[in-house]
């Protein structure tokens, strides 16, 4: 049931924000292991997409909602895709992990461990769906 909700929301908000739904699902897997109620040890990263609360207007309760977390994560990915210097081959996702400022400092995004993890899950989504 949860995987169905994640898939439906990833499709809906992926289309809305111009982000590949399989990329959204791969990031959710890396960030929270698909756990909607995940909260980072420091309490700053919330929900399925592990959104940093200080960067968004949504409440903690809203970010714990599966579809809201995906919506906000997709919105952040759209922003990163536009503002991160890495634009090819999904390398803008390094900015999802470390922010645009930090991501723009990375010279070889394809060697970044976070990028490799997300691409591993994205390939699985594409192959097995």
List keywords for this structure.
129 residues; mainly alpha; Lysozyme; two-stranded antiparallel sheet; 6 helices; 2 strands
Task: Describe it.
There is one protein chain. This protein has 129 residues and is mainly α. It has one domain: Lysozyme (Orthogonal Bundle), CATH 1.10.530. The chain has a two-stranded antiparallel ribbon. It is globular. The mean pLDDT is 93.
Radius of gyration, taken over Cα atoms and rounded to an integer in Å? 13 Å
Please state the overall shape, judged from the principal axes of the Cα atoms. Answer: globular
Order of helices and strands: HHEEHHHH
Largest sheet: 2 strands, antiparallel
In the CATH hierarchy, the architecture is: Orthogonal Bundle
- How many beta strands in the DSSP annotation? 2
The helical percent reads 55-70%
Number of separate helices: 6
Low-pLDDT segments, ≥5 res: none
Mean pLDDT: 93
Task: Kindly report how far apart the N and C termini lie.
Answer: 16 Å
Strand % is under 5%
The strand order across the widest sheet is 1-2
CATH class wording: Mainly Alpha
CATH topology name: Lysozyme
